[in-house]
Structures are given as structure tokens and as C-alpha cells.
Amino acid sequence: MTIALETLTITDASRKLSHGEFSARELTESYLSRIERENAGLNAYLEVFDDCAEQASRIDERRAKGEALGSLAGIPLAVKDNILIEGRRASSASKILEGYRAPYDATVIRKLKEAGAVLLGRTNMDEFAMGGSTENSAFGPTKNPHDTSRVPGGSSGGSAAAVAGNLALAALGSDTGGSIRQPAAFCGVVGLKPSYGRVSRSGLMAMASSLDQIGPFAKTVADAELLFEAIAGRDPMDSTTLDPAQIQKKNKRAKRIGVPRRFLEKGVNAKILARFEETLTTLRGKGYKVCDIELPTITHSLAVYYIIMPAEVSTNLARFDGVRYGLHVDGDDLYGDYIKTRGAGFGREAKRRIILGTYVLSAGYYDAYYAQACKVRAVIRREFEESFRAVDAIAIPTTPSPAFAIGEKADDPLKMYLEDIFTVPANIAELPAISIPAGKTMPGLPVGFQLIAPYCGESALFSIGKDIDGD
Ligand code: GLN
């Protein structure tokens, strides 16, 4: 049986599965044959699980028995390789985790399993989620399905390419400074970074713990919402998750959108700006009020991010010592073991950030860098809060340029870091943000339109987002 995967959404697939138009097994097998044909070229998956068909058949059997099924019953999903799935390998695309198997399910995985999802495999990424192109993977770069000479973005490039190339119906990624939204923009799919604390980080390999969030990639805003609902919630395993009672429900429809104009003057590709303006015009046509706002300190977000993030990275990656996880290389003594294992196991970018982070946290520089960055972070957060008195959401492009060529920025970390200018503010301020496909640039490359909402205001992102993608 052939299923038209190109136009399929989770909503459609769920309806067709429940009407018996196709079985979960048939749907999964369609994805597996697509993966078989395309994955060697795209390198979206690091591993495709060998029991996908069995997972799907179990759902079919339960459906046949008339059992109550979850919201994602029979839906084939891809999972970024830094999220633990019990008994499976998990590498964060790093050599240092060679041979490591996850001893438990991440909370989001437990929830996906309970919702009946079929887990297809582990997707490629920048090592430990550090990068914006998936070129920092120890297992080779992923290619952008729209143009295989270009990067899919990163660090969750494998998940974005899997969804864009119809190698999965939707996927999970993680976003510390844009790693869901930027690849979503480059690959022409929807990507959501939830508010900090909405989704449990238990079982997510930590990059920068005060910034990390797991979130969905999907083809439509409605699908992203469905996946978000399935994974969100308070979790005793992550004390930073919120109690649903703490989340204020706003029933008023979001109608006012603010644009921090001055921030957009910073070297944005002209075609990206043109698509951005067109989307604003569409929204005006649908009754939204669009106005300019000031967020003066937002311009410092990138500097703040590249101090706080490596500081936390250097601490989090200290656990990879050759004793507790994965790779072990023998040195002359214990210290020698550490040096040899970490030297052989980590790639260049991981090492660069560990060194940077150790430097900004060191006794002589802590006050000058880390403490200062934390203060500026508080100011940025306050400015967002103040601006949300006047607007319901803030719009900015997701990226300053479309997907770049593989190799183009690989040797220039600063150029690569500058790509994150529009995505890091939401992480710094712990706010929810979504990237929605909004047209293309001339050579057929997708462009992302980003919306940022007040803390826990995901519902505003979904309602405005649906007015953009027409769902
Ligand atoms: N590109 C950013 C970085 O390199 C974002 C990473 C992320 O969100 N995991 O840090």
C-alpha cells in the first residue's frame, strides 16, 4: 500500500488510523521504506530501531481489541540522540559515549510511549547539542532535504531533516539557544521551544541546564501543539517543571504583535526580511495589530548566551570522565585516564566550549564575565516582561539568513555563533517561542517566522501560528 507521506499530518494520520484506512504497521512500513531509500543521502538518522514494525503492530492489536489509545497512537516519530530511550544506545553524536546504553526512559519518552507513539530511531545532531549546522556530529553532517549541498541547521538537524524529508511524521529535538527553531526554519517545518519548565528535562543529556528545553518538530502548528501537549507537564524527576496550577490560562485571544525593529537592523538577509514583512501583512489582514516595540538590551543576548551557556556546559560535561559513561582510554594514572579519554572522546567544539566555560567561571574572571552576564540576563527578562504589557506576542525572523552551504562556516566559530542572534533571547528569558515556515528565498530555501510569547503563553503561539500556516 502506498501512503502519501508528503501531505500527511498527525491529525490526518490519526483520523485515517482510527477509520482503518491504513494500519499503524502499514504507516510505519511506509516510513521505513522511505528511510531505506533516503537516509544514506541525508544522514538524518544515526540509528533506525529494529523493532519499529513490532511497536506499530502492538498498537494495531490494541486498537483491534477496542482498547482506549493515547493521542499519538501509531504515529511514527524520530527522537534526537540526546534523549534517553531505555535499553537503546544514546550518544549525543559524540565519540565519548561509545557503547553507552540508556538505563531508563526520559520522561518525554515515557509519555510518548504512553500516548502510543512508534519510535523510529535516533537522529543526528551537533555533539552534545553544540552547534547550528549538525556539522559538529562525530558521525558526519546531516544534509538539508531542500538542497543537499546545504546544512539542515542544528543542533537538532537530524530531527528537522527527518520531518522535512518525510522520514518521520514529527520529531523531538532540544533547544538551548535555538536548536529546534533554527533547523525548523532551515528545513521548512514548525519547531517549538516551550517555556522553561513546561517540559521535563529528566533523561535529556544536559547541555546548559538553565536554558535547555525539549520540544517538537512537526509539519503544522496543530501537530506541534498535539506533540507539546503529550510531553508537557510537572515531573517529580525535574524540580524545575511547573505545576499546572501555576500556569495561568488566558482566554483572551492574542491579537497584538510587537516587532523590535531596531533589533532587525542587524545584518538580516533582504529576502528573509521581505518574507517577514509579508507574514506581518498576512497577520494584519487577519485582524492583528502590529506595532513596533523597544527591547534595548536584547542586542546583548548573544554575548550573554555565549558566557552562561559555556559556563554550564563546562560543568555538565565534567561527568564524562572515562569512568562513569562510554569511552575509556587508559593513561598512566587516573588523571591520565581523564586527559586521554576526554582528549579522544570530545570533538573540537565541545573542547572549545569547555575551555571558554572554565575560563568565565574561574576565580579571577567570574565577576567580570559570569556574574555580569547573569545580571544582564535579568535585565533582558525584565524588558520582555514589560513589553508584554503592551503586546501578546513578539515577532522576529528565526534566522538572519537561510540555510548556508556545508563547510561555509565550519572553520569560523564566530560566524556560526552569529547565526543564533534571533533565537537565544527566548532561552535567556525562559520564554516560549515557535518557528513557522513563512515562504522561501529565491533558490527555494525555506524561511522561518518566529513568535515569542509571555511565560507559559504557548497557547498564543498556537493560535497566531495557525493563522499563519492556515490550519
Ligand atoms: N546554535 C546554538 C549553539 O551552538 C544553539 C544550540 C542549542 O540550542 N542546543 O549553542
TrEMBL record:
Matches recorded under HAMAP family: GatA (MF_00120)
Coiled coil: none
Oligomer and partners: Heterotrimer of A, B and C subunits.
Superkingdom of this protein's organism: Bacteria
Presence of keyword Membrane: no
Domain Amidase: 26-461
Species, as recorded: Candidatus Vogelbacteria bacterium RIFOXYD1_FULL_51_18
Family annotation (PROSITE patterns): AMIDASES
Family note: Belongs to the amidase family. GatA subfamily.
Lineage per the UniProt record: Bacteria, Candidatus Vogeliibacteriota
Active site residues per record: 80, 155, 179
The enzyme's E.C. designation: 6.3.5.7
GO terms assigned for molecular function: ATP binding; glutaminyl-tRNA synthase (glutamine-hydrolyzing) activity; transferase activity
GO aspect biological process, one term: translation
Transmembrane segments: none
Gene label: gatA
InterPro entries: Amidase, Amidase_CS, Amidase_dom, AS_sf, GatA
Protein name as annotated: Glutamyl-tRNA(Gln) amidotransferase subunit A
